[in-house]
Amino acid sequence: MVWWRSKRNQDLEREIRGHLDLEEEEQRNAGVTPDDAPYAARRAFGNVGFIKEVTREMWGWTSLERLGQDLRYAVRMMRKSPGFTAVAVLSLALGIGANTAIFSLMNAIMLRSLPVQEPDRLVLFGKGQWAGVTDDLPDHSWQLFAYPFYRHVQRKNQVFSGVAAMGSMGNDVRAIVSGNRQSEPVSARLVSGTYFSVLGVNAVAGRTFTDAEDQTPGGNPVAVMSYSWWQRRFGRDASVIGKTLTIGSTVFHIIGVAPPEFFGTSVGESADLWIPASMITEVPPGWGGDEPTRDPSFQSFHILARLNPGVTVTQAGAQVNVLFKQALRERVGSAPSQKELSAIQHALIELTPGGRGLSQIRGRISLMLEILMGAVGLVLLIACANIANLLLARAASRQKEIAVRLSIGAGRLRLIRQMLTESALLALVGGVAGVVFAWWATGFLLWMVSTGGETLPLSVTPDARVLWFTSVLSLATGVLFGLAPALRATRVELSSSLKEGRGSLPARSKNVLAKALIVSQVALSVVLLIGAGLFVRSLVNLRNVDTGFNKENVLVAGVDAPSAGYKEDDPRLTALYQQVEQRVSELPGVRSASFSMFTFQQGAWTMSTYPQGRTPPSENHGEIHNNAVGPGFFAAMDLPVILGRAFNSRDTAKSPKVAVINETMARTYFPGESPIGLRYGFSPEHSGDFEVVGVMRDAKYGNLREKPTPMAFYPYTQQPRYLGDFTVRYAGDQRGLAQEIRRAFAAVNSNLPITNVRTLAEQVDDTLIGDKLVARLSSFFGLLALLLASIGIYGVLSYAVAGRTSEVGLRMALGAKRSNVVWLVMRDVLVLVFIGLAIGVPGAVSLERLASDMFYGLAAVDAVSIAAAVSILALVAGVAAYLPARKASLVDPMTALRYE
Amino acid sequence: MAKEPNRVELLQGTLDMLILRTLLFGPMHGHGITKHIQRTSDDMLQVDHGSLYPALHRLERQGWIASKWESTDRGREMKFYRLTAAGRKQLVLEESKWQQLAKAIAQVMRPA
User: Fold this and answer.
1) Residues A438-458 as b or e (16 or more Cβ within 10 Å = b)
2) Distance between the two ends of chain A, CA-based, in angstroms?
3) How crowded is residue B48: how many other Cβ atoms within 10 Å of its Cβ?
């Protein structure tokens, strides 16, 4: 640009030079001496410098050059008022940074596509939010599929270019790397042989496995490593490929490494290894009974498929559902019951976009992130209102400058553009600072939403989408807070502004805008504060909820039972459990110890249940939750049995099958009678399988928000299973206890590893992670909003007071008291605060209704939160208004009157 | 700028028309345009350089004339201006406006 301009200047120079040369020649021809000719030519031409200047004016300014001028001017203005610049940039950095941080997380969890080929063409069968195994006959929208169904779709469809299946559960197993003696924990994912080819993911070292290696059950023990495990465990040593890994008794060959950006298809869950699904009986070792990949009722897989070019999701969905019903009819055989036929009638597969992968955390976190996004949006709006107010005040002090510029011919549009450039520059500087702040904040947020001490494996580095978001946000912010003040500032009465000095009363219309900004700040702040109050109170309610068990003084150890090397119905495994329980119970300080399938929040085993001789209830699809536990479990959890008995050592594999049920199950399955001695079972034909021997108080099993759930417990001697949890109640100090427990396990069987030990209280607390995050962050944002709003009130009032000095002086000279003056000044602001509250409180109430699912144990209109928010805001606003008002009242009347 | 008594000052706005008219004969540089106007008006019209170059640059920006560096017959590099199609139209327009003005003035000065 500078180059362009100087090129044009040189051109003009040359043109005039040429003109003068010709003129000189003519003068010589006309008889002027060669010495005088140049001067004569100059004289004839006139003032060269002036003519050049006038000519240059004709070129006009290009918009880029104007932008350059405006930017230079804006930088000068920013330097001239460093205080204003600092406040503006800081509040923008906080506002934009918080928005960017939350958006980065949303992007990583909810928006970003997997790093695979053409993610837009991937579809997922169902929503991909279930994990587990079920043998139910599908009778509604279905989420988990059997391996034979995957093969069925793969063979019969004409709509997909490829189909892949993934085990829905991560497998935390122990593996021995070749050359080592100690086993180490690894997380393995079972996937079909087509997995990598359907996704279009290639190995960065070695190779991935193929469909051919996924045909024979147990036939191809191969594994692909994740890049992060390769890096973490082997320091990216390429010679690892070809080495072996022993899981249980099976030796796997490491054949390749996946690319670094590929974390798998489950967002937020890490995988160290991918293993062909045909190895399902070996991973985890001894699991799944006989040939799950051949069993059409072993439904435990997610299915992902790639659409053929030109095929729509609707077309694909139609064909998939035809294939689904075909497969289900084959499964029920030639003589299906009426119930089975009707179930198949209602069975349905919804195809959903698969390009973003599957996510368990998506469902858990997305609502939370959306709420936080709303909160940070409000904070940014408040920050904008604040800066707009500061700009207004500043524009008022620049009124004279602006009037001078307008009167010597500056266009109004030109001035507005220049002022908008100033605010855009402010916004951009704030945006850059915001990105830096977000960089730090995103890591912090990720740490806050992660459970169990491990950070979620998510890549949250800002990508193009995040940077776009931030740039657009910054510019929009700049226009938002800059436009109104710029319009307002350039609308000046030239003659009066030029005549007046500083200190004139601000025009009425300026006040209207400033007042509107104060009102909106107050309204937005009170919404945020009430929201924060609701989340905090909801969290307090959840913390105080009666869990039904005593979470203090309990350690819970995760147990990798399959690694012991026994089938789950091997009597030796039951004996092993009993020995460990015995040994740990004898440790000093231990009150009670027991194995169980689950403790709190670890999952559930659900079954359709039929009471003998009674009609089953229709709630919960007629299903109850079940758990297999040791005789010490109720004591360890402190679950009181209120009727009948708990389990004891006389409940063995050979004794009659017994169950202890909870109050809710007693009430719904056996209404109006004592259930002791009554029977139920898992099918109408076997409704006499279990005899109820006890009733226990209701408790929370899955999470703290759940409604009372029907639940039944069985002695594990009668329900042989792999038991994943070991619960220990202790008295006094738990230090060293975890070590003692590990030692006891090792002493009984060195192949029975403990994966991790935590307190039950921590386990309960982890389920509140989202609530805690929202409560903390919304409180933080609420306080930030309060701070910004009070700065706004203080600033506007200080400015207004300065303008009223002489009026105040006059009033005091006429006998007004200091208190009268304070009231006079504060009255205006308090009216605004009141209007803001009157708008904000109903707004917050309707938002509370919208998000009522998020809150626990609160009334539809929570008076406590509202009262607290209103009084905090009124108090802070009062102080912010009192300080300038008091300053005004301290003015000496004589000085004030002489002021003008 | 010195003015000689036997010379007439250009009416405002007529310089543009004269430049356009001059360029109708073919491309010409600034100096040539001045001389041409002086010559054809029998030295009655003296073009002020202070307004010639600004006018040339303004007309170029408006797209009525275009410029190019070219050599004169005697090998000197000069900036030549030539009329564009838009410039031709503009010339017609200005000329008719001028004629109307001249007619109107004539009527005022010598009422019929």
Assistant:
1) bbebbeebbeebbbeeeebbb
2) 49
3) 15
Tokens 């064909």 correspond to A319
Q: Which residue has the higher pLDDT, A900 or A389?
A: A389
For residue A727, the SS3 value is strand
- What mean pLDDT is predicted for residues B87-97? 91
Q: What is the ipTM of this complex?
A: 0.85
Check if the beta carbon of residue A888 is closer than 8 Å to that of residue A821: yes
Q: Is the pTM of this model over 0.80?
A: no
By CB atoms closer than 10 A (0-12, 13-18, 19+), residue B109 is exposed
Mean pLDDT of A120-135: 84
A751 vs A355, which has greater pLDDT?
A355
| pLDDT tens-digit readout, A495-546 | 565 555 444 444 444 567 888 888 999 999 999 999 999 999 999 999 888 8
* CA dist A808 → A514, A559, A588, A891, B89 (Å): 21, 78, 79, 8, 69
Do the chains contact at A46 and B29, CB–CB below 8 Å? no
Buried b (16+ CB within 10 A) or exposed e, A619-638: ebebbbbbbbbbbbbbbbbb
pLDDT number for residue B112: 65
- Beta-ladder partners of A187: A172
Segment A846-850 mean pLDDT: 85
Does B29 touch chain A if contact means CB atoms closer than 8 Å? yes
Rounded Cα distance between A625 and A698, Å, is 12
**Gap from A500 CA to chain B (nearest CA, Å):** 40
Task: Supply the pLDDT for residue A772.
Answer: 83
The per-residue pLDDT for A503 is 41
User: In the block, which residue shows the tokens 């003129």?
Assistant: A23
The partner residue sitting opposite A18, judged by closest CB among B1, B61, B76, is B76
Residues A424, A479: Cα–Cα separation, whole Å:
7
Contact yes or no for B48 and A19 at CB 8 A: no
Residues A518, A389 contacting (CB under 8 angstroms): yes
**Full DSSP string of A608-674:** E-EETTSPPP-GGGGEEEEEEE-TTHHHHHT--EEEE----TT--SSSPPEEEEEHHHHHHHSTTS-
pLDDT confidence of residue A316: 93
**Distance (Å, whole) CA A160 – CA A123:** 9
* Smallest Cα distance from A482 to chain B, Å: 34
Beta bridge partners of B66: B82
> Please, what is the average pLDDT of chain A?
85
Question: Options 2.160.10.10, 1.10.238.10, 1.10.10.10, 3.40.190.10; which CATH number does B14-109 get?
Answer: 1.10.10.10
- Complete DSSP assignment for A19-67: HHHHHHHHHHHTT--TTTHHHHHHHHH--HHHHHHHHHHHH---HHHHH
Mutate to test the interface with B, among A21, A22, A43 (most CBs of B within 10 A): A22
Kindly state whether B63 is in contact with chain A, defined as any CB-CB distance less than 8 angstroms. Answer: no
Q: Are A826 and A885 in contact (CB under 8 A)?
A: yes
* pLDDT for A629 beyond 90: yes
